[in-house]
Request: fold
Amino acid sequence: MDFFLIIFILLLLYVMILFTCQYLGFGSKIRGKNSNNCCPDCRNPLDRKQRIFKDKIITYLTVGMFDWRRYICKKCGWEGLRWEKKYKPSGK
Reply:
């Protein structure tokens, strides 16, 4: 097969996977009665935290379709991407 055809098929497949992930709700906000962006552990509002370089690269690779911002919960100490369920203490 032609090299350019293979590249085109792989790019098309990649874009279809991105749209499927977005349709299934990957990376969507957890909404609560007090806030539109809640902590996955305690359902309190989240505050923004500075992104790391890896998050910026992934944002470019996913064509900006997903929100790779970092958040922190002041009440329980959770920090990370808003769809990460794992507890990460804020003190390093």
About this structure: The longest strand covers residues 47-49. The mean pLDDT is 79. DSSP finds two helices and three strands in the chain.
